[in-house]
Design goal:
The protein has 157 residues and is of the alpha/beta class. The protein is 28% helix and 11% strand. The chain contains five helices and six strands. Helix 3 packs across helix 4 (132-144).
Length: 157
């Protein structure tokens, strides 16, 4: 892998997700006005501190991995997914331990998040998946060229 693979990529085209408390101190992002101007003090968290991506909270887009139904990021060309996703243990207990596949859940969350980007317009993206597990889940899904039956069944119920 190239040492600086994001060099030359406009920062406004980068979409990143990770736990909020890793990107912002105390998990508190600065308030943003309706015209996109940050109001208040920005404090980078441990993942953002010292990163060339953070520059006062942007211009890269930090987006919760649970974001759904928005076209606001469809210009994003480079996506950074800093999660090794698992379902919350309290939810898993409530649903019953065997009722939900951790891998299917993780893949579904990842695909939903990736779909916020320009891939929705059938344009290419670059996706960074540092977690070996998440990368293998995604690549396996792509190579099979179909969504696993378990996911289709759960969506169609």
């Amino acid at each position: 892998m190239a040492r600086r693979p994001l060099r030359g990529v406009p920062l406004e085209n980068i979409l990143l997700t990770c736990p909020k408390n890793k990107w912002f101190v105390g998990g508190k992002s600065p308030k943003v006005s309706s015209d996109g101007v940050e109001m208040g003090r920005y404090q980078p968290g441990p993942y953002a501190k010292g990163s060339r991506l953070q520059g006062r909270g942007g211009p890269i887009h930090w987006l919760p991995n649970t974001t759904r139904g928005t076209n606001d990021y469809k210009n994003a060309t480079h996506l950074i997914y800093l999660y090794n996703q698992y379902i919350n243990s309290n939810i898993l207990s409530f649903l019953g331990a065997g009722s939900v596949s951790q891998d299917d859940y993780a893949l579904t969350e990842l695909i939903q998040w990736v779909w916020r980007s320009r891939i929705r317009d059938k344009k290419p993206i670059t996706l960074y998946l540092p977690s070996r597990r998440m990368r293998n889940l995604f690549l396996s899904w792509l190579w099979e060229d179909k969504i696993p039956t378990q996911i289709l069944d759960s969506v169609n119920q």
